[in-house]
Write a structure and sequence with these properties.
heterotrimer, A alpha/beta (290), B alpha+beta (382), C alpha+beta (155), A: 290 residues, alpha/beta, Elongation Factor Tu (Ef-tu), domain 3, seven-stranded mixed β-sheet, six-stranded antiparallel β-sheet, B: 382 residues, alpha+beta, 2 domains, eight-stranded mixed β-sheet, globular
Chain lengths: 290, 382, 155
């Protein structure tokens, strides 16, 4: 069997709809968020690029030669076709991605997965609990909520980071706090001498947020342990489990449910998740080795 | 010829079927003996088939044995399954070339498209295997998510089913409702008759099957012949070597998450992944991105993977399922329970391959029974 | 609108479901207090004769660590109760409490309250339950903080 080449450039939307073929994008800007976390701003190398995304969805990012990783989209869903991805350089591929410069090429597949329940949140109070880099997948939801601010009742963003130096999107958070249509509270696990804000885990912010438990949609993203404690406290406040949404992480390789790696009980995280209402995952959430 | 009408093809004329398929441009794949096992590979003549051989199977046991007749399909299933052809173990998805001498700058991705698409005719597809192929269709070619390579191969493949007139010691298709007779999904189905003259009862299941059938020298099957074929299937159904009680099995497995029995299985399980490789429905693959030494040329490969490896559940910093217990549980609960949530049916077709090819002889039917009994005992405990 | 002390206490979740005469007694032990930015509310080793209900501002619970200076272990904000050392011998503060910004609070006379708790075990038990629950939540939060969950693995 010999192979002949079909040049991708001729058809950037993956010939025959092959979901395994990356679509070329170009890096427009690299923003350093913290010492190890970067936001890449990308535009399609040729129109039309990937389809519009929903807040909470992710793309597979291909760094030439290094490999591919799933990264949630962290930009504004209304900014199509610009795509923002906030990446923490921890492995070989994420390090290669964070080393990209303006003008470099990147391969993208997506968008994949389910989004945050922004429709369900209409006319509800919204409590967003983010931990560490978990703020990145929640930022598109915030953009969306603020874009249609009048459709929602109180919005609270409670954000926990390791240290003040690890806080993502600091300037944006300050700007939002100044708008007074969004309650923002930030806390760190360890504050330095210059830190004037809260110290303690993100759950300690919950009693200070104002929301009506029965009319609240809670969106959680962060380390699994953090989400577990947040769910406990939300439920103690009276928020029912079907109104609490968590983002689950597993090894994802294909994004289409073919490779089987991201199975989480009966769900494929890549197509049924990564966002789940807590009542759907409760029997296995936090269990060892699921 | 009427739909579903049954004909007789003399065994001596089976070669006509192979020729007719070859004539239509099919590459015929069928059972053949290699390395002491009946495997699936290209067959050109009837002599390539395992005439007069059968397979003896048990937990961790597979041997070929001479039959005292000339049966061509007088065995059950071997280590191969058809997924080997429909979803190859190793497949290059694309190549990429760097356009600026090893920097990230720019690269070009080129999709892998074979210049010549193979068109397969599978000869000797068992009822359980037809169901396995139907299951793979749901996984890999659903309306929302389709693997284009699989779909292409699958649509062009001609399926010649063979009904099982004997059940193996590791078979339990009757429990899974997938055999021993083929009910649908084939182009042609054969039932081998050995009493009297060596012949096949043939029936078409599709119009392209009917076209091929029309090209063969056949006669209409008599009522006795049809009756004989059907009674042999009943006999096979009644003599299954294994049984799996599927009643309430899904809920039972979900409930058994923390049961100590998983640890007892893990004491025997070698985590070798044999069960997943021989399983006709296990579909997991891994994506491998590789580069050459110059760094200018990259490729992406899709390869069969197994939930029994620690790398399978790797998540920045470690494996989610680091213990054998968790990996066996994942496999069995997925196969018999989660699969039903995902694809509306069990992922097990009762072919028994995982039992025969497990080097430790772990028997999925026995483990399901043990979990059921352990739970029943637990429920009655004070 | 100026709220009376007993109504502030009655509305606070911490004092929920207390009997009216107990609320009255507790209100009798309370005074409004204000702290400037960086003002110490209590110092490690001092007599712990009070606990506080923070109404506005932020208080850091700190420990002076050689060469590192004042390390904030946790902050306590609006709606939170601050201080449980008044409830257990030797009634001394184990940490420093410092206002991180202008802070308004209710201060409760712990000395008076613990004498009353000895006398009225119903009140004593109610107070103990509430402070135990608070300590339990703080311990939970501290355990989570110890895990350093955001520091993902590196290769």
């Amino acid at each position: 069997m010999t192979a002949h080449a079909i040049e991708l450039a001729a058809n950037p939307r993956a010939p025959a709809g092959n979901p395994m073929l990356p679509v070329p994008y170009r890096v427009e800007r690299v923003r350093r968020e913290t010492y190890d976390t970067f936001t890449l701003e990308m535009v399609p190398a040729q129109a039309p690029g990937l389809a519009a995304f929903l807040p909470g969805q992710f793309n597979m990012l291909y760094a030439f030669g290094a490999g591919e990783v799933p990264i949630s989209i962290s930009g504004d869903p209304n900014d199509c076709p610009i795509l923002l991805h906030t990446i923490r350089a921890v492995g070989a591929v994420t390090k290669a991605l964070c080393a990209l410069k303006r003008g470099d090429m990147i391969g993208l597949r997506g968008p994949f997965g389910s989004g945050w329940p922004v429709k369900q949140a209409v006319d509800q109070d919204v409590v967003i609990l983010a931990g560490g880099i978990g703020l990145a997948p929640l930022r598109p939801a915030l953009y969306h909520l603020l874009h249609d601010r009048r459709k929602y009742r109180r919005i609270s963003l409670l954000y926990g980071a390791r240290t003040p130096e690890d806080i993502l999107y600091l300037r944006e958070l300050e700007r939002w706090r100044g708008q007074f249509d969004l309650e923002i509270d930030v806390t760190v696990d360890r504050g330095g001498a210059g830190w004037r804000g809260n110290v303690g885990v993100v759950t300690t912010l919950l009693p200070r947020a104002t929301f009506d438990p029965a009319g609240t949609i809670a969106m959680l993203c962060g380390p699994e342990v953090m989400m577990r404690f947040c769910v406990l406290d939300l439920r103690k406040c009276g928020v029912p489990p079907q109104r609490i949404f968590v983002s689950v992480e597993r090894n994802m390789q294909c994004g289409t449910g073919f490779c089987g790696h991201c199975q989480y009980g009966p769900a494929f995280i890549c197509k049924d998740g990564p966002v789940f209402s807590f009542d759907r995952v409760e029997p296995i959430f936090g269990k060892a080795e699921v | 010829m009427e739909a579903g009408e049954q004909f007789i093809l003399e065994a001596a004329r089976l070669g006509e079927l192979l020729s007719a398929l070859a004539h239509q441009g099919y590459e015929v794949i069928g059972p053949s003996i290699r390395d002491g096992a009946i495997v699936y590979e290209p067959v050109h003549t009837v002599d390539d088939l395992p005439r007069g051989w059968t397979d003896e199977q048990g937990p961790g046991y597979y041997r070929l044995r001479r039959r005292d007749d000339d049966a061509l399909f007088g065995f059950n299933v071997g280590p191969h399954s058809w997924k080997k052809f429909l979803y190859p173990a190793s497949h290059r998805l694309f190549t990429a070339t760097c356009q600026q001498n090893g920097t990230q700058g720019a690269f070009r991705i080129v999709e892998e498209v074979p210049s010549r698409q193979p068109r397969y005719a599978f000869l000797g597809v068992r009822a359980c295997e037809l169901h396995a192929i139907a299951i793979l269709d749901k996984v890999l070619a659903s309306p929302n998510y389709t693997d284009p390579d699989y779909k292409r191969l699958r649509e062009s493949t001609f399926l010649v089913a063979v009904n099982c007139t004997q059940a193996g010691a590791t078979c339990f298709c009757a429990s899974m409702g997938t055999g021993p007779g083929a009910d649908s999904g084939y182009d042609l189905v054969l039932t081998e008759l050995l009493e009297g003259s060596h012949r096949f009862v043939v029936r078409a299941g599709s119009s392209r099957g009917a076209d091929v059938l029309a090209a063969l020298t056949t006669r209409v099957a008599s009522a006795e012949e049809r009756e004989l074929a059907s009674s042999q299937l009943d006999h096979a159904a009644a003599h299954m070597g294994r049984q799996l009680d599927t009643g309430g099995l899904q809920a039972l497995l979900y409930r058994s998450y923390d049961h100590p029995h998983w640890e007892a299985i893990a004491q025997r399980c070698l985590s070798c992944a044999n069960c997943t490789l021989v399983c006709p429905t296990c579909f997991c693959t891994t994506i491998e991105d590789v580069t050459d030494l110059s760094g200018d040329h990259a490729e992406r490969w899709r390869r069969w993977d197994s939930c029994f490896t620690t790398a399978f559940s790797y998540l920045h910093g470690g494996s989610v399922r680091s213990s054998t217990k968790a990996r066996y549980r994942q496999w069995m609960v997925h196969k018999l329970a989660a699969w039903i949530d995902q694809f509306d049916e069990s992922g097990c077709v009762g072919c028994g391959r995982c039992i025969a090819w497990c080097p430790a002889g772990i028997d999925i039917t026995a483990e399901a029974r043990a979990l059921r009994e352990a739970q029943a005992a637990g429920a009655h405990a004070p | 609108m100026i709220q009376t002390l007993d109504s502030v206490i009655r509305e606070h979740a911490f004092f929920k479901d207390l009997e009216e005469h107990h609320i009255q007694f507790i209100a009798g032990c309370a005074t409004n207090v204000r702290f400037q930015e960086d003002q110490f509310i209590f110092r490690e080793g001092d007599d712990a004769d009070h606990f506080y209900f923070v109404r506005e501002g932020l208080v850091s619970i700190e420990l002076l660590v050689p060469r590192r200076g004042a390390v904030t272990v946790q902050t306590v904000g609006p709606g939170d109760v601050l201080g449980w050392s008044w409830l257990a011998p030797p009634y001394r503060w184990h940490f420093d409490g410092r206002a991180k910004c202008p802070t308004r609070a209710l201060a409760f006379d712990g000395k008076c309250l613990r004498a009353k708790c000895e006398e009225d075990h119903d009140l004593g038990y109610e107070m103990l339950k509430r402070f135990y629950n608070m300590a339990f939540e703080r311990l939970d939060a501290t355990r989570l903080q110890l895990l350093d969950i955001y520091d993902g693995p590196r290769d």
